[in-house]
Amino acid sequence: MTGDPSYVELGVDDVAKATHFYSQLFGWEPQHMSDGASVHTGSLGIGIHGKDSENHFEVFFAVDDLEASLETVRDLGGGVIGDIVTSDGFGRWSECVDDQGVRFGLRELSR
Fold first, then answer.
1. pTM for the model
2. Is residue 13 packed enough to be buried (19+ CB in 10 Å), middle (13-18) or exposed (0-12)?
3. Is there a contact between 106 and 91 (Cβ–Cβ < 8 Å)?
4. Which CATH number fits domain 5-108: 3.10.180.10, 3.40.50.1110, 3.90.550.10, 3.40.50.300?
5. How many CA atoms lie within 13 A of 31 on its CB side?
6. Tens digit of each residue's pLDDT (9 = 90 or more) over 70-107
7. Residue 52 and residue 20: Cα distance in Å, rounded?
8. DSSP per residue over 48-89, as a string?
């Protein structure tokens, strides 16, 4: 459904430290990959990637029409900070900022 959180990305310096911390805190069982890890909670998938210059949690929100939603972001005074990307198994997505500079992602699940 449009506007529902659909994915969370965790950017960190050290994937191993992050997976240990959050596993101990929440009981997450990460699946380790060559470039990071992923966690599937009861409600969201979380991707953990390392060597990120900006440690952050970024929420991706589901939208029905990515291009129209990006235009609305711009109309409301926000910005689009990345190209539209298509990722196998993830869908089409782009990163944005709101009118105060807060980063978030928009994700079109199917087209």
1. 0.83
2. exposed
3. no
4. 3.10.180.10
5. 7
6. 999 999 999 999 899 998 888 899 999 999 888 999 99
7. 17
8. EE-S-SS-EEEEEEEES-HHHHHHHHHHTT-EE-S--EEETT
